[in-house]
Amino acid sequence: MTNPIQFDLCIGRKKPYSKNHDACPFCTPEKLTNILEKRGEMIWLMNKYPVFSDTWPTVLIETDRHKSELSEYSPGQLHEVVSFGLEKWHQMEKDRRFKSVIYFRNFGPRSGGSIRHPHSQIIGMYHYDYTDNIRDENFWGPVFHEDRSCIATLSDYPICGMAEFNVMLKPDGTTDTFADTMQTIVKFVLHDFPIPCDSYNLFFYRLKNIYVKIFPRYIASPLYLGYKITQVVNAESRHVILKKLKSQSYFDE
Ligand SMILES: [Zn+2]
Predict the structure, then answer these.
(1) 100-107 and 119-125 strand pairing
(2) Which of 16, 183, 195, 223 gets the most CB atoms within 10 Å of its CB?
(3) pLDDT tens for residues 65-74?
(4) Terminal C-alpha separation, the chain
């Protein structure tokens, strides 16, 4: 059993929250501190509010447009953002101080994110290996899209969401196509998921291959919170989801 990581509520209390109409710190880049690297309008910097103990938390501000969103990025912008993120994630993974590095992104009121401005987080963990909690079967499930670079599945054995979508980057695949596939699924989640959805998370994993999970987000189920009972969509719902994803509106398979 892995030990929990500690969350500092005193720091958490000071964080700005978009839902409270707090001023967005990412809209005034001239006031940002501890910047690690700038590329175009993207800024990679240290997180000013390091709520998780025993970590080296960084943030990647993806754009200077507060109301923009990954599902709306042009192909060029999407490729730049994902390639910058994967590059910095990999750079941190090579740093021997970290036992593992997590890379994820929140969007929407139910995603657990505090700031609306489009950003991702890449966090180095000194003594925690996230892969201890993840199993290969969490990525298994029916394939609804495959091309030269990636394979997309709907989880039969999700980690905790009832519908988790996965994209695996093939060893010789291009990250641009990987990003395109991920964005197409995000569009499906926000616009055509069988029950309306305004929030999602992206989680990246490095196992034998690189994966990204796209999680539609709702208020978490009490069955999972209290009993760790994982739910998965039934056969009929799965059919509806896969049929739409394979249709002309999305992957046209
Ligand atoms: Zn902003």
Answers:
(1) antiparallel
(2) 183
(3) 999 999 999 9
(4) 41
pLDDT tens figures, 89-108:
999 999 999 999 999 999 99
- With cut-offs at 50, 70 and 90, classify the pLDDT of residue 1: low
- Would the pTM count as exceeding 0.85? yes
Please tell me the distance between residue 45's alpha carbon and the centre of ligand 1 in angstroms.
15
Cα(199) to ligand 1 centroid in Å equals 18
CA of 29 relative to ligand 1 center, distance in Å: 9
Residue spans per domain, the chain: 9-131, 136-198+211-246
Q: How many helices (H) and strands (E) does the chain have?
A: 5, 10
Would you put residue 184 in left (φ > 0), alpha (ψ -120 to 50) or beta? alpha
Q: How far is the CA of 94 from the centre of ligand 1 (A)?
A: 31
CATH of 9-131, one of 3.40.50.2000, 3.40.50.880, 3.20.10.10, 3.30.428.10: 3.30.428.10
Cα 159 to middle of ligand 1, angstroms? 31
Mean pLDDT of 165-181: 98
